[in-house]
């Protein structure tokens, strides 16, 4: 518990030991106006003595539907799915890599001079999903379209992609490519070559019209769909993290990837804001807060 310092720590009348690299789920005691502790073990409890309310320290972002999370921590071999929640694909979500990719811990460098694919099967039908990525372009794309993240086969049968687009150096989240009416969103936020940015595509086939697709740039909804996308993907469902030409075009995009997550549900705007984390990539499982019991 606590910050790992080697001393006895008193918190609102409750004493707990925080040393020797040990971590415990404990019960903390305080009043409703007190600041609750942070940086503690998941599963810890907090009791308000004046209101008798009880709280648990747990994930503030539901991991339901998280199929894969890639933190690019590997320095060789395949790209590993590090999500361990019950809905995760586990090791079947590990992605084989081809092409010229420089693999450094925490950020992989994809050179657009040749195609790089990382693909693996997902559930065969998508009626809702979210693709979220942290990416830093080496140079802003001003010509041609290069896919940087897609669901379904990234080579021939895209259902959804986030593109580095030639439309003035913007991002282009797209739903429905090769699977019906293509609906694309051009972000107003430009590709930033000096820092990582978070780009998100959310699809919900249960909604009507252009509400089915939403694009986000740095945690804020951005852009308007060009058309009503189809309601689902029905075949060849895969993840593809790639720098490759779209529709046979030569890939010209060069970028570094830092974090990617793929969900089979539509995240809410507030959940995407949590993932943005004020501009610092964070693993979904590490978004933690106190939750009142019974709520």
Give a short synopsis of this structure.
This protein has one helix at 269-276, and strands at residues 8-11, 14-17, 27-30, 45-48, 54-59, 66-70, 101-104, 107-110, 119-121, 128-137, 146-151, 160-164, 171-175, 183-184, 197-204, 213-217, 220-221, 238-240, 244-245, 255-263, 288-292.
Global morphology: globular
> How would you state the average pLDDT, rounded?
75
Q: Which H/E pattern describes the elements?
A: EEEEEEEEEEEEEEEEEEEEHE
Beta fraction: 25-35%
State the distance separating the first and last CA atoms. 25 Å
Number of strands: 21
The largest pleated sheet is described as: 8 strands, antiparallel
Please work out how many helical segments DSSP would assign: 1
* Uncertain stretches: 1-23
Helix content: under 10%
Q: How large is the radius of gyration?
A: 21 Å
Please state the structural category: mainly beta
Describe the structure.
This protein has one helix spanning 269-276, and strands spanning 8-11, 14-17, 27-30, 45-48, 54-59, 66-70, 101-104, 107-110, 119-121, 128-137, 146-151, 160-164, 171-175, 183-184, 197-204, 213-217, 220-221, 238-240, 244-245, 255-263, 288-292. A hairpin with a 5-residue loop joins strand 4 (45-48) and strand 5. 3% of the residues lie in helices and 34% in strands. It is built from one helix and 21 strands. The chain is mainly beta.
